[in-house]
Amino acid sequence: MAENEVVVRKALKSKNRNLNPFILLLFTILVIYVVVFTYMLVWAFYNSFKPAAQWGERQFMQLPVYTNEMWSVDGFFQGIDANGSNVTNRDIYFKGIFYNYTKVVAAMPGKARAEYYAGWNLDVKMPKQAYNNTFFMIIFNTLVYSIVGSVIIGVVPCVVGYVAAKYPYKFSTLLYVITLFVMIMPLVGTEPARIKLLCRLYLFDTMWGDWIVNFTFANMYFLVFLAFYQGVSGTYAEAAEVDGASQLRTMVQIIMPLASKMIMTIALIFFIGRWNNYTTPLIYMPNIWMISYRLYTITTLNANTLGDDPTKIAAAMIIVVPIVIVFIFLKDKIMGNISMGGLKE
Fold first, then answer.
1. Segment 272-293, tens digit of pLDDT
2. Beta carbons within 8 Å of 20's beta carbon, 6+ residues apart
3. How would you write 255-300 as a 3-class SS string?
4. CA dist., res. 232 & res. 258, Å (int)
5. Opening angle at CA 29, ends 23 and 33, nearest 5
6. pTM of the shown model
């Protein structure tokens, strides 16, 4: 019994040593961070159901209230309808608690009509893309844009990092130097040249153009994968090669699965960024509508019908909900530590 008490006391002392002031301060900051962002998300969620009239009364903290005065779409309104009858705010009703969401979804479909010039001399005027963009087509475009692009950004640095670690020659050193140069040098003002090149190659306003632009290794994640693969024992690859596996099969089936959690984490980070990104589709793919790009345009251009703050918050919630669902289902697979087994001699 005495020996067991000594062991327990030693364990408690080791735990108390870990609870130093820095750890407690860091934990407090993280708790405050989580509470603040959770509150902001909840606040935005219940404000997305409010009528514009209630928001106009500066009731920012109150829950949605639907009375005869608050069910007006545009606040205290008075005018003449299409039949010439006088109408007031009591005649224009807020049609259900999901009315803001239905307004946003109904306004998303439309026809894209952006024009641009292509060809090597930029003398070919591309025809207007006048096809109808339905709501489901916009969702499909966004999924393809987000998933394929994030996979490319996650896999390409992984492959190049493995090659540079597996074959430490002068070319691998060159890849390392190029990455450092791109990360350190302030390469600004390259957007016009990139747009001009894509137009000359007929890749502007296409998914292929975006995928090719993102097919690069010169970023921070190349350095992460390079350091990771340099720490992986060469016994894994040697054992596979002894069994007759090719270099490609060794990389794909033996080595890359060791970094699968890193790849999934990087891909998820970029999936969230690309799902929320509206500037890149706005500049490079004006006729291929994404959900964030389309919500940005309808909430800014259609200010008369979609310009009130509760409707804008509802549009933001439409973008947030899929990201929350993705994180809930994938958090157990991507939030773990990387672990590798050993090989027996």
1. 889 988 888 888 988 888 898 8
2. none
3. HHHHHHHHHHHHHHHHHHHHHHCCHHHHHHCCCCCCHHHHHHHHHH
4. 9
5. 140
6. 0.76
